[in-house]
Amino acid sequence: MRRAISRLKPLWLVPILLGALLGVLGVLDVVPDFVAAVPPPVIVTAIALGVVLFAVHPRAEAHQPHRMAAPVRGRWAALNTPGQQLPSHGSRFLGQYAAVDILRPTTPATPAKLRKAWRNSTPQEYPSFGEAVYAMAPGVVTATWSRSRDHRARNTWQSLVFMLVLEGSLRSVAGRAALLGNHVIVRHADGTAAVYAHLRRGGVAVQKGQQVGVGNQLGEVGNTGNSSEPHLHVHLMDRANPNAAAGLKMTWTDITRSEEIEPSLAEIAKQPEPNAVLSMPRNGEIFEA
């Protein structure tokens, strides 16, 4: 039942978006007469039902982490990782139950995570931007999106507040591309599928229907979609349609963990929660792939 409801997420968005539109029209005092004639309880019920059904996500049965290759090469740091807790991103939306974000360790030239300024840093200022992204397992590309532009980071106080309060919510209801940005989905022989998100515009290197092998390049790291700075977001699902998918745990078999903490992520580097995937790096941990 959960999967059937979740598959219809675009439908449940309709009353939510109509409710938002009515709110704007109400503020402007230009609500059409035929809409004003609808009893308010009917409108409120429809919106509430849409919100409740939109929040229904599938859940996978208990399973061991799927063994995969890392999607990058070299030194990287993890955050929002299943090595810290589950759900790693605080949600099961779009199969993200055990998603992980990774980025290159900072250098002296890397912009601060948060600074006092009027303009945000450009994506080109970050060491992760343009880095190659590789397939974690062999499979066939089932979807790509490459039209989103690389936006500036969200590393000023005003932009970070905007992202946390409004932008993230708007992207969540605006569709998969608005949230994931440029992305690639690869379906594997066992029916699982991996999502590679926030890729650079012009950097997607594959097309739908293409067969890829483990280690084949899929694209480049960018700063598209719901991203505060250039990084790679990856997650594994039990099917290729994110709206109907349950998130799956995975582990990378070809990484060396250093137990070293990236200084810019030291504040979130804590002991893993009891449900964490202990074979994956915890928040802030640097690893070599």
From TrEMBL:
Keywords: Membrane, Transmembrane, Transmembrane helix. InterPro entries: Cell_wall_metabolism_enzyme, Dup_hybrid_motif, M23ase_b-sheet_dom. It comes from the Bacteria. The keyword Transmembrane applies. Residues 174-240 form the M23ase beta-sheet core domain. Pfam families: Peptidase_M23 (PF01551). PANTHER family: MUREIN HYDROLASE ACTIVATOR ENVC, PEPTIDASE-RELATED. This is M23ase beta-sheet core domain-containing protein.
